[in-house]
Amino acid sequence: MNRLLTFFLFLSITFFSHLNAAVYKGQMEFLAECIGCHHKPFLFLETKTKSWWKKEMSEKGKSVAYIHIKSLKAKDSWKYFRSKQYSKKARHLSDFLQEYAKDSGNIPIFD
Ligand code: HEC
How many angstroms separate the alpha carbon of residue 111 from the centre of ligand 1? Predict the structure, then answer.
């Protein structure tokens, strides 16, 4: 019994720390690449729901990249949104954005 419990504990710890690692990577990316233009991350993240982020950040963040590439105001981000770095990190960004979406009940802590 004890052994089984330990096993489950171990499983959930590895599972959750893996999850958090993805969110954390997304947060680092957000702080490095998005916050320069999207100041006040609380307000910004809170404008969208989880399902919005999930949808818009699917397929390697295609829609969100498109929002920027079609906007002259976002010109400085074009290079980034076309880069491999973005398409690689889109999944982590998506995890992070959903984690702190309007309906997530979570508040991001930026340290
Ligand atoms: C160079 C500045 C810049 C950077 C960097 C940038 N954005 Fe934007 N973003 C904008 C501008 C400007 C708009 C508004 C575009 C428009 O509607 O014309 C925008 C719009 C958006 C929207 C749509 C908002 C809405 O209400 O529909 C989302 C979502 C978004 N950005 C997410 C991100 C994410 C995620 C990152 C980082 C990976 C990022 N942005 C990086 C400038 C930037």
Answer: 22
